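Hi R.,

Here's the chain you asked about this morning:
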Amino acid sequence: MSWMPQGTVYGTLLNFRAEVEALAPQMNQPPYKAPPQAPVLYVKPANTWSASGASIPVPARVPEVEIGATIAMVMGTAGTVVGYVLMNDLSIPHASFFRPPVKFKCLDGFLGIGERLVPVAQAGEASTFSLEVRINGEHQQTVDFRHLVRNASRLLADVGEFMTLRPGDVLMLGCDAGRPLARRGDRIDITAPGFGVLSNTLVAETSDAGPPLGAIAPAGGSDDTPVRSVGATST
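And the predicted structure, written out as tokens:
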């Protein structure tokens, strides 16, 4: 039986150096006019969770899906980490990072979850992690966790400054820049040494009742004046 979360799943933005460098020009623009000083988090609610091997529905109005390959910490008691799990944090591509991008990240099934929890003692230090992304068998991305802005322990400590993570909660380490794009019909395989394979296939959603993607304004702005957004943050 595949492992599934027992608590809240949190994503982390701006925790890879390349991601920060790519977005640096926008960070000094309104409304904040400065880079965030604390971790930038968002929630992936239970409607987004998909087990490894499951098909993930993609609405007809969504031409491409952004792959967010990562590894996440699973919390135990007293702020400890009991293990790590592969995740595929899917989203609709969007140009916003200041406000919670719910309509882009929280579609049904838009979080692939690895089938096994790897205990800390077996997984080793998170800075040694690496993973690969393949679409239809072709290599698309390699993610090296040596390039984190905050390593696992620092991220956990900084998040603990403004919120409590409870046993069963899950905290992603972040997704690197250069995230691959996939379409309906594509099979996405994410592998990491010791973690096995997280595999999902994108399929057409059977009932698509939303407006065309071009009719959806970016979070915090209109189609003409998008505002960049990243979820919850503490400065």
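The helical segments are 17-27, 102-105, 120-123, 152-160.

Let me know if you need anything else.
M.
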